[in-house]
Amino acid sequence: MPWRASPGAQPDPYHVWLSEIMLQQTTVGTVIPYFVRFIEAYPRVTDLAAACDSDILGLWAGLGYYRRARNLVATARLIARRGRFPQSPSELMELPGVGPYTAAAIAAIAFGIPVVPVDGNVERVVARIYAIETRLPTARPAITAAASQLGAQPAAVRHPGDFAQALFDLGATVCTPRNPSCPGCPWNQSCSAFALGIADQLPKKAAKRSREVRYGTAYLLLDPHGRIGLRRRPPTGLLGGMFELPGSEWTPATPSHEPPVPADWQQAGTIVHAFTHFELRLTVNAASIGALPDHLTAAPADIPLPTVMKKAVRLGLSALEGAVN
DNA sequence: AATACGGGGGC
DNA sequence: GCCCCAGTATT
Predict the structure, then answer these.
(1) What is the mean pLDDT of chain A?
(2) Which of A97-106, A162-171, A253-262 is predicted least confidently?
(3) Does strand C come within 7 Å of the CB of A64?
(4) Distance, angstroms, CA A64 to C1' C9?
(5) Residue A324: pLDDT band with limits 50, 70, 90
(6) Residues A277-302: what's their mean pLDDT?
(7) Number of domains forming the structure of chain A
(8) A240: CB within 7 A of chain B nucleic strand
(9) Domain closes at, from A157, A179, A207
(10) How many Å does it take to go from CA A308 to C1' C2?
(11) Which residue places its CA closest to the C1' of nucleotide B6?
(12) Which 296-315 residues of chain A approach strand B with CB closer than 7 Å?
């Protein structure tokens, strides 16, 4: 992992912070290329602080949870002004986008402070070691207390960053959500859930509710230079601050709508995209036009976009190509 | 305590 | 198709 310090080397707090923000609810494999591109573009936190919001949003496009990118900019500028990173968990918690987990992770990994960051991996490992059968999220306080108890071992106190990352690695490779590799686990002799034969049933989670369906229509306008017409979403809320195709609201019932301009509109089809709390079925219409209207931003078709809009643009462009042939 | 907030990968 | 992920902020 490109953010992890070599054995014996001093961790870079900027790398640790950036990676931990990116890794919130996001898998290692997804994060790596984004992290590498960010460090290439902005080698130091002062470089990030000096960059413009739009460039940073563009580099973040596709990674999801876009509020993280806005908080990232604000924090980079704060750190650059102060000239140093906060180190204690309580100070770190004051940074936008840094909660209890990330504060503990940065404090332990970047600054060697003996705290245990409790993420999904650690939650699972600890729930199994102590056979905590209470359902989440009710079990969270008990799990946090048990994690701190583990972190109080002398070896963990001597190397808080290594201990935290070892817990992550154990959760990612051995103590997995399904089919955990208990026979080869270095902690199986200390694991109550293994002794009880219930490791794969823990932690218990609350039942999920079903995902609502919403419908919308989007319009792809293509000019003779191969540019498409986009607009900027509001800075907060879903896909906050990102570019999108113009179109209708997204609602549980098919919304009424008008094309942004009169044109020879063709139906390109419908894309389906799953968000966290609803599924979007977006019907895409496409048209070629001599000049894009002033109220839209003319952008190259490969401009960074959130994934749902990439899908829509691809479908719209393919319909226009098909019409030419 | 519940909900909003993306996207990708595993099975 | 469902579950999960190096969670946080808001209500």
Answers:
(1) 95
(2) A253-262
(3) no
(4) 16
(5) low
(6) 97
(7) 3
(8) yes
(9) A207
(10) 20
(11) A64
(12) 306-308
Asked if pLDDT for residue A190 goes beyond 60, the answer is yes
Here the CATH number for the domain that contains residue A244 is 3.90.79.10
Residues 134-173, chain A: which have Cβ under 7 A from strand C?
Answer: 165, 168-169, 171-172
Which CATH number does the domain housing residue A181 bear? Answer: 1.10.1670.10
**Two tokens, residue A199:** 């490791």
CATH code of the domain covering residue A67: 1.10.340.30
Domain that holds residue A197: 114-207
CB of A209 lies under 7 Å from some atom of strand B: yes
Q: Is A20 a catalytic residue?
A: yes
pLDDT per position as a tens digit, A15-65? 999 999 999 999 999 999 999 999 999 999 999 999 999 999 999 999 999
State the SS3 of chain A: CCCCCCCCCCCCHHHHHHHHHHCCCCCHHHHHHHHHHHHHHCCCHHHHHHCCHHHHHHHHCCCCCCHHHHHHHHHHHHHHHHCCCCCCHHHHCCCCCCCHHHHHHHHHHHHCCCCCCCCHHHHHHHHHHCCCCCCCCCCHHHHHHHHHHHHCCHHHHHCHHHHHHHHHHHHHHCCCCCCCCHHHCCCHHHCHHHHHCCHHHCCCCCCCCCCEEEEEEEEEEECCCCEEEEEECCCCCCCCCCEECCECCCECCCCCCCCCCCCCCEEEEEEEEECCCEEEEEEEEEEECCCCCCCCEEEECCCCCCHHHHHHHHHHHHHHHHHHC
Domain ends where: A159, A175, A207? A207
pTM greater than the 0.90 cutoff: yes
Residues A258-275: what's their mean pLDDT? 96
